[in-house]
Amino acid sequence: MVSKIRNSAARRLTIQRQLLVDGAVTVEALARDLGVSEATIRRDLSVIEQEGAIRRTHGGAIAEAPRGADQAFAIREQQDGEAKRAIARSAMTLIAPDQTLLMNDGSTNLALARELVASRMRLTVITPGVNIAAYLSESPDITVYLLGGQLRHQTLSTSGGFAESMLSSFNADIAFIAAEGLTATSGLTYSYEKDAVLAAAMNSKAKTTIILATSRKIGQRDRITAFSTDAIDLLVTDCHDTKHLQDLKEAGMDVETCATDAGTVASLPTNQAKSR
User: Is the full-model pTM beyond 0.90?
Assistant: First the structure.
Protein backbone atom coordinates (compact mmCIF):
# COMPACT_ATOMS: atom_id res chain seq x y z
CA MET A 1 0.00 0.00 0.00
CA VAL A 2 1.09 3.62 -0.49
CA SER A 3 2.50 5.14 2.70
CA LYS A 4 1.71 8.46 4.40
CA ILE A 5 -1.45 9.41 2.54
CA ARG A 6 -2.78 12.53 4.27
CA ASN A 7 -5.56 13.44 1.84
CA SER A 8 -8.73 11.80 3.19
CA ALA A 9 -10.30 11.06 -0.21
CA ALA A 10 -7.12 9.45 -1.55
CA ARG A 11 -6.67 7.52 1.67
CA ARG A 12 -10.20 6.12 1.58
CA LEU A 13 -9.73 5.15 -2.05
CA THR A 14 -6.59 3.27 -1.07
CA ILE A 15 -8.48 1.49 1.72
CA GLN A 16 -11.25 0.51 -0.69
CA ARG A 17 -8.66 -0.83 -3.12
CA GLN A 18 -7.17 -2.97 -0.36
CA LEU A 19 -10.63 -4.31 0.45
CA LEU A 20 -11.25 -5.08 -3.22
CA VAL A 21 -8.08 -7.16 -3.40
CA ASP A 22 -7.93 -8.79 0.06
CA GLY A 23 -11.54 -8.73 1.23
CA ALA A 24 -10.55 -7.59 4.75
CA VAL A 25 -8.42 -4.93 6.48
CA THR A 26 -7.32 -4.14 10.03
CA VAL A 27 -7.16 -0.70 11.64
CA GLU A 28 -3.67 -1.36 12.99
CA ALA A 29 -2.21 -2.38 9.62
CA LEU A 30 -3.89 0.49 7.74
CA ALA A 31 -2.66 3.07 10.24
CA ARG A 32 0.88 1.73 9.93
CA ASP A 33 0.89 1.51 6.16
CA LEU A 34 -0.80 4.87 5.53
CA GLY A 35 1.12 6.80 8.17
CA VAL A 36 -1.90 8.10 10.08
CA SER A 37 -3.47 7.45 13.47
CA GLU A 38 -5.80 4.54 14.20
CA ALA A 39 -8.50 7.08 15.07
CA THR A 40 -8.21 8.52 11.57
CA ILE A 41 -8.54 5.06 10.04
CA ARG A 42 -11.63 4.34 12.16
CA ARG A 43 -13.25 7.55 10.86
CA ASP A 44 -12.37 6.56 7.29
CA LEU A 45 -13.93 3.13 7.75
CA SER A 46 -17.08 4.69 9.19
CA VAL A 47 -17.44 6.86 6.08
CA ILE A 48 -16.86 3.93 3.74
CA GLU A 49 -19.32 1.79 5.73
CA GLN A 50 -22.06 4.38 5.17
CA GLU A 51 -21.70 3.73 1.44
CA GLY A 52 -22.74 0.11 2.06
CA ALA A 53 -19.66 -1.57 0.58
CA ILE A 54 -18.12 -2.86 3.81
CA ARG A 55 -19.02 -4.11 7.26
CA ARG A 56 -17.07 -2.99 10.32
CA THR A 57 -15.56 -5.65 12.55
CA HIS A 58 -13.69 -5.52 15.83
CA GLY A 59 -10.33 -4.06 14.82
CA GLY A 60 -11.06 -3.60 11.12
CA ALA A 61 -13.55 -4.18 8.32
CA ILE A 62 -14.52 -6.75 5.71
CA ALA A 63 -16.18 -6.49 2.32
CA GLU A 64 -19.96 -6.76 2.63
CA ALA A 65 -20.97 -10.37 3.18
CA PRO A 66 -22.64 -12.07 0.19
CA ARG A 67 -26.17 -13.44 0.33
CA GLY A 68 -28.22 -16.06 -1.44
CA ALA A 69 -26.51 -18.03 -4.18
CA ASP A 70 -23.31 -16.06 -3.55
CA GLN A 71 -22.76 -17.86 -0.25
CA ALA A 72 -21.74 -21.20 -1.77
CA PHE A 73 -19.42 -19.38 -4.17
CA ALA A 74 -17.91 -17.42 -1.27
CA ILE A 75 -17.08 -20.67 0.53
CA ARG A 76 -15.23 -21.94 -2.56
CA GLU A 77 -13.49 -18.60 -2.89
CA GLN A 78 -11.93 -18.99 0.56
CA GLN A 79 -10.40 -22.36 -0.31
CA ASP A 80 -6.75 -21.87 -1.31
CA GLY A 81 -7.40 -18.13 -1.09
CA GLU A 82 -3.76 -17.05 -0.85
CA ALA A 83 -2.80 -19.29 -3.76
CA LYS A 84 -5.55 -17.78 -5.92
CA ARG A 85 -4.43 -14.25 -5.01
CA ALA A 86 -0.82 -15.09 -5.87
CA ILE A 87 -1.88 -16.57 -9.22
CA ALA A 88 -3.95 -13.46 -9.93
CA ARG A 89 -1.02 -11.16 -9.13
CA SER A 90 1.19 -13.13 -11.52
CA ALA A 91 -1.49 -13.07 -14.22
CA MET A 92 -1.70 -9.28 -13.93
CA THR A 93 1.89 -8.95 -15.16
CA LEU A 94 0.82 -10.52 -18.45
CA ILE A 95 -1.88 -7.95 -19.25
CA ALA A 96 -1.42 -4.68 -21.15
CA PRO A 97 -3.84 -1.71 -21.31
CA ASP A 98 -6.57 -1.78 -23.97
CA GLN A 99 -6.48 -5.55 -24.37
CA THR A 100 -9.55 -7.73 -24.73
CA LEU A 101 -9.74 -10.61 -22.25
CA LEU A 102 -11.87 -13.74 -22.00
CA MET A 103 -12.40 -15.10 -18.48
CA ASN A 104 -14.42 -18.19 -17.62
CA ASP A 105 -16.17 -18.46 -14.27
CA GLY A 106 -14.57 -19.55 -11.00
CA SER A 107 -13.03 -18.18 -7.85
CA THR A 108 -9.50 -18.01 -9.29
CA ASN A 109 -10.71 -15.72 -12.07
CA LEU A 110 -12.66 -13.73 -9.48
CA ALA A 111 -9.34 -13.12 -7.73
CA LEU A 112 -7.99 -11.85 -11.05
CA ALA A 113 -11.07 -9.63 -11.44
CA ARG A 114 -10.25 -8.01 -8.09
CA GLU A 115 -6.76 -7.22 -9.33
CA LEU A 116 -8.10 -5.83 -12.61
CA VAL A 117 -10.42 -3.43 -10.80
CA ALA A 118 -7.67 -2.29 -8.46
CA SER A 119 -5.28 -1.70 -11.39
CA ARG A 120 -7.52 0.92 -13.04
CA MET A 121 -6.35 -0.40 -16.39
CA ARG A 122 -8.52 0.21 -19.46
CA LEU A 123 -9.68 -3.20 -20.70
CA THR A 124 -12.52 -5.12 -22.31
CA VAL A 125 -13.56 -8.35 -20.59
CA ILE A 126 -16.00 -11.03 -21.75
CA THR A 127 -17.13 -13.57 -19.15
CA PRO A 128 -19.96 -15.98 -18.29
CA GLY A 129 -19.30 -15.39 -14.58
CA VAL A 130 -22.03 -13.25 -13.00
CA ASN A 131 -19.88 -12.52 -9.94
CA ILE A 132 -16.92 -11.65 -12.12
CA ALA A 133 -18.96 -9.31 -14.31
CA ALA A 134 -20.52 -7.64 -11.27
CA TYR A 135 -17.13 -7.12 -9.69
CA LEU A 136 -15.59 -5.74 -12.87
CA SER A 137 -18.47 -3.28 -13.15
CA GLU A 138 -16.96 -1.48 -10.15
CA SER A 139 -14.38 -0.04 -12.55
CA PRO A 140 -15.43 2.62 -15.10
CA ASP A 141 -12.26 1.77 -17.04
CA ILE A 142 -13.36 -1.80 -17.83
CA THR A 143 -15.93 -2.57 -20.51
CA VAL A 144 -17.69 -5.77 -19.47
CA TYR A 145 -19.72 -8.18 -21.59
CA LEU A 146 -21.67 -10.82 -19.67
CA LEU A 147 -22.39 -13.83 -21.88
CA GLY A 148 -26.06 -14.68 -22.05
CA GLY A 149 -27.49 -18.13 -21.46
CA GLN A 150 -28.83 -20.40 -18.76
CA LEU A 151 -27.74 -19.31 -15.29
CA ARG A 152 -26.30 -22.11 -13.18
CA HIS A 153 -27.25 -21.46 -9.58
CA GLN A 154 -24.34 -23.36 -8.08
CA THR A 155 -21.56 -21.61 -9.99
CA LEU A 156 -23.28 -18.28 -10.77
CA SER A 157 -22.32 -18.53 -14.42
CA THR A 158 -24.10 -18.73 -17.75
CA SER A 159 -23.73 -21.56 -20.24
CA GLY A 160 -25.36 -23.17 -23.25
CA GLY A 161 -26.01 -22.23 -26.83
CA PHE A 162 -26.76 -18.55 -26.20
CA ALA A 163 -23.47 -18.06 -24.34
CA GLU A 164 -21.54 -19.90 -27.05
CA SER A 165 -23.21 -17.92 -29.84
CA MET A 166 -22.43 -14.58 -28.18
CA LEU A 167 -18.85 -15.63 -27.49
CA SER A 168 -18.33 -16.43 -31.18
CA SER A 169 -18.70 -12.71 -31.99
CA PHE A 170 -15.61 -11.71 -29.98
CA ASN A 171 -11.90 -11.83 -30.74
CA ALA A 172 -9.61 -11.61 -27.72
CA ASP A 173 -5.97 -11.05 -26.92
CA ILE A 174 -5.88 -13.41 -23.94
CA ALA A 175 -8.17 -16.11 -22.60
CA PHE A 176 -7.68 -16.64 -18.86
CA ILE A 177 -9.22 -20.04 -18.21
CA ALA A 178 -9.56 -21.41 -14.69
CA ALA A 179 -9.09 -25.17 -14.59
CA GLU A 180 -11.01 -27.91 -12.82
CA GLY A 181 -8.33 -30.43 -13.70
CA LEU A 182 -5.11 -30.41 -15.70
CA THR A 183 -2.83 -33.31 -16.66
CA ALA A 184 -0.20 -33.77 -19.33
CA THR A 185 -2.07 -36.65 -20.94
CA SER A 186 -5.71 -35.47 -20.69
CA GLY A 187 -5.20 -31.72 -20.96
CA LEU A 188 -7.68 -29.26 -19.45
CA THR A 189 -10.66 -31.11 -18.01
CA TYR A 190 -14.05 -30.39 -16.44
CA SER A 191 -16.78 -32.39 -14.76
CA TYR A 192 -19.55 -30.44 -16.55
CA GLU A 193 -19.87 -30.67 -20.35
CA LYS A 194 -20.92 -27.06 -20.94
CA ASP A 195 -17.93 -25.76 -18.97
CA ALA A 196 -15.63 -27.74 -21.26
CA VAL A 197 -17.41 -26.50 -24.40
CA LEU A 198 -17.18 -22.85 -23.32
CA ALA A 199 -13.51 -23.21 -22.35
CA ALA A 200 -12.76 -24.71 -25.77
CA ALA A 201 -14.59 -21.84 -27.47
CA MET A 202 -12.57 -19.29 -25.46
CA ASN A 203 -9.37 -21.04 -26.47
CA SER A 204 -10.33 -20.79 -30.13
CA LYS A 205 -11.21 -17.07 -29.91
CA ALA A 206 -8.02 -15.81 -28.21
CA LYS A 207 -4.51 -15.19 -29.52
CA THR A 208 -3.08 -16.54 -26.26
CA THR A 209 -4.55 -19.05 -23.83
CA ILE A 210 -3.41 -18.92 -20.20
CA ILE A 211 -4.57 -21.51 -17.67
CA LEU A 212 -4.94 -20.47 -14.03
CA ALA A 213 -4.82 -23.44 -11.66
CA THR A 214 -4.07 -23.95 -7.98
CA SER A 215 -1.89 -26.89 -6.98
CA ARG A 216 -4.89 -29.07 -6.09
CA LYS A 217 -6.01 -28.91 -9.75
CA ILE A 218 -2.66 -30.04 -11.17
CA GLY A 219 -2.62 -33.78 -11.81
CA GLN A 220 -6.39 -34.02 -11.38
CA ARG A 221 -8.43 -35.39 -14.29
CA ASP A 222 -12.15 -34.72 -14.62
CA ARG A 223 -14.64 -36.38 -16.97
CA ILE A 224 -14.46 -34.16 -20.05
CA THR A 225 -11.43 -32.75 -21.87
CA ALA A 226 -11.88 -29.19 -23.15
CA PHE A 227 -8.60 -29.18 -25.09
CA SER A 228 -5.16 -30.74 -24.97
CA THR A 229 -1.97 -29.27 -23.52
CA ASP A 230 -0.60 -28.29 -26.94
CA ALA A 231 -3.38 -25.66 -27.18
CA ILE A 232 -2.18 -23.99 -23.96
CA ASP A 233 0.39 -21.19 -24.13
CA LEU A 234 1.03 -20.77 -20.41
CA LEU A 235 0.06 -22.26 -17.06
CA VAL A 236 0.14 -19.98 -14.01
CA THR A 237 0.07 -21.98 -10.79
CA ASP A 238 1.26 -22.15 -7.20
CA CYS A 239 2.16 -25.83 -7.67
CA HIS A 240 5.77 -26.76 -6.87
CA ASP A 241 5.46 -30.50 -7.55
CA THR A 242 8.48 -31.11 -9.79
CA LYS A 243 7.08 -34.29 -11.35
CA HIS A 244 3.73 -32.74 -12.36
CA LEU A 245 5.36 -29.57 -13.70
CA GLN A 246 7.99 -31.50 -15.64
CA ASP A 247 5.28 -33.66 -17.24
CA LEU A 248 3.42 -30.54 -18.35
CA LYS A 249 6.61 -28.95 -19.63
CA GLU A 250 7.45 -32.05 -21.67
CA ALA A 251 3.92 -31.92 -23.09
CA GLY A 252 4.82 -28.56 -24.64
CA MET A 253 3.50 -26.10 -22.07
CA ASP A 254 5.16 -23.05 -20.55
CA VAL A 255 4.77 -22.96 -16.77
CA GLU A 256 4.93 -19.96 -14.45
CA THR A 257 5.07 -20.88 -10.76
CA CYS A 258 4.22 -18.20 -8.22
CA ALA A 259 5.16 -18.17 -4.55
CA THR A 260 2.17 -17.54 -2.30
CA ASP A 261 4.14 -15.73 0.37
CA ALA A 262 5.77 -13.07 -1.77
CA GLY A 263 4.16 -13.33 -5.20
CA THR A 264 7.53 -14.04 -6.85
CA VAL A 265 7.56 -16.02 -10.05
CA ALA A 266 9.78 -18.69 -11.59
CA SER A 267 9.31 -19.54 -15.25
CA LEU A 268 9.85 -22.81 -17.12
CA PRO A 269 9.73 -21.73 -20.80
CA THR A 270 9.22 -24.37 -23.46
CA ASN A 271 7.16 -23.09 -26.36
CA GLN A 272 5.95 -20.00 -28.17
CA ALA A 273 2.45 -18.54 -28.19
CA LYS A 274 0.15 -20.30 -30.60
CA SER A 275 -0.56 -18.55 -33.88
CA ARG A 276 -4.12 -17.93 -35.00
Answer: no
